[in-house]
Design a protein that fits this description.
- By secondary structure, the protein is an all-alpha fold.
- Helices cover 69% and strands 0% of the residues.
- The protein contains 18 helices and no strands.
């Protein structure tokens, strides 16, 4: 068995002779907005409060700095590989050329988990904020339709979560241009709301709230950094769009690095203001930013924050589902998943079947099962992908120095090695239960590969 057979073409249709490739419609600005759309969302509006209350205290700002540094290192590596291998599929596509089919499958299967759990988790948070907004107008859904199935609470299905996933699936099926346009509007709304929070909240900061600064010690800061890494999934999702980007050698690095820089600054600023406004012990709520404004009696602005949070999480869902559909499209086109999923709609130039399959599965999962409890699986999956991509830069430099690179990581192999080590270090901060779930998922994926993917692979058919 040749488990490490590699692609030689930079694009899937170059390898297989297929004409099934996506239309290039996006520029650097579109990519930057997609990144901001995915990175700014649950991380600010949901995770910050619990990470401060349970892990880091005011030291949360250091957690975002550490996570940001790890992301900057990984982003440089992603920028080089995405400008060298401008194909849909992100780390999966890179690994197919650099390491071979078996590791490409592992990365692809890892990313399926990463995007799926993240989308289900965010849709649950979206539902909570949306129901809170309705309650402000004295509108209440029947209890059975407000959350995932729980016989003790009388809930059956989270209807708002199902509806938002299906609406976004419909939008994605209309085409990349429509997706980008909608994302831009929502990004403007949520960034405006985040800046409004910072602008108002900074006048209510009390330095006493930053004492003690590290109530859980530095280990708590590291644990929080590993948890908030969930928020930085966005620039990985950008790289799945490489095949739909005009001049990817130039635009991919700009989109990845600029979106990460913007979002890291906003995350650090929000964590500084949030922990300065409210004692960290009181931040363990589902809507910490709105709670902080209610804490200082800015109820009207808190309502605006809820609107911004809904817009923010909508764009997160949009980009996560976009990334998931492009990943499955790429794996299907390579034969590792059923080939009917790589069917492209002639009018919209979108992978229509994979789009509706992904949307339907995630809608049902988020509506019926409390998957938000599995959020840490997204963090470990993201860190694993980042570590592999970082090592991939070193390997590809050595094996294919002839390839045209639109961006090159400085100080190779030092920076990629540092990136991989930081990611592995953060993975080790996650709970053993997260590791068990991650390993079980990968083992399940290997079974599918050996019983289906290996035999159906286009490379296997060619050989």
């Amino acid at each position: 068995m040749d488990l490490f057979r590699k692609k030689t073409g930079l694009l899937p249709h170059e390898e297989s002779g297929s004409t099934g490739h996506l239309k290039r419609t996006m520029g650097a600005f579109d990519l930057t907005m997609l990144g901001v759309g995915c990175i700014i969302g649950t991380g600010i509006f949901v995770i910050t409060g619990k990470a401060a209350a349970e892990n880091a205290g005011p030291g949360l700002m250091l957690s975002f700095v550490i996570a940001g540094i790890a992301c900057v290192l990984a982003a440089l590596c992603y920028a080089e590989l995405s400008s060298t291998v401008p194909a849909a599929g992100s780390a999966y596509a890179y690994s197919y050329i650099v390491f071979g089919e078996i590791l490409a499958w592992v990365l692809g299967w890892d990313l399926i988990l990463e995007y799926g759990v993240a989308a289900a988790s965010v849709s649950s948070g979206w539902s909570a904020y949306f129901q809170g907004l309705l309650a402000g107008f004295d509108v209440h859904l029947p209890l059975a339709l407000t959350a995932a199935f729980d016989s003790t609470k009388g809930t059956i299905i989270d209807l708002p979560a199902v509806c938002i996933i299906m609406l976004i699936t419909l939008l994605l099926s209309l085409g990349a241009k429509e997706t980008v346009r909608f994302n831009l509007i929502m990004v403007c709304v949520k960034v405006g709301v985040v800046l409004l929070f910072i602008g108002i909240g900074i006048f209510y900061v009390k330095p006493d709230n930053w004492t003690p600064f590290l109530p859980y010690g530095f280990s708590g800061v590291l644990s929080a950094a590993a948890i908030v890494f969930f928020a930085y999934l966005g620039f990985d999702a950008i790289s799945t769009a490489a095949e739909e980007v005009r001049n990817p050698q130039r635009n991919m690095p700009i989109g990845i690095i600029s979106s990460l820089a913007i979002c890291t600054v906003l995350y650090i600023a929000v964590s500084v203001v949030l922990t300065g406004m409210v004692p960290y012990t009181q931040l363990g709520v589902s809507d910490p930013v709105a709670f902080a404004l209610r804490f200082i009696h800015q109820d009207f602005v808190a309502g605006l924050i809820s609107v911004g949070a809904i817009a923010g999480m909508t764009t997160v869902l949009l980009v996560l589902l976009f990334g998931q559909t492009r990943l499955i499209f790429s794996m299907s086109r390579d034969g590792l998943l059923p080939v009917f999923l790589s069917k492209i709609n002639a009018k919209t130039q979108t992978p229509i079947r994979s789009t509706w399959l992904v949307g339907s599965i995630i809608a049902l999962a988020s509506g019926l099962f409390p998957l938000h409890a599995l959020t840490n699986l997204t963090s470990i999956g993201t860190l694993f992908a980042f570590a592999v991509v970082s090592v991939g830069v070193i390997v590809l430099r050595k094996k294919r120095p002839d390839l045209k690179r639109g961006f090159t990581v400085p100080w190779v192999p030092l920076l990629p090695l540092l990136s991989a080590l930081v990611c592995i270090g953060l993975m080790l901060q996650l709970h053993i239960s997260t590791w068990i779930g991650f390993i079980v998922w990968l083992l399940l994926g290997l079974l599918i590969y050996f019983f289906y993917g290996y035999h159906k692979s286009l490379l296997n058919r060619k050989s």
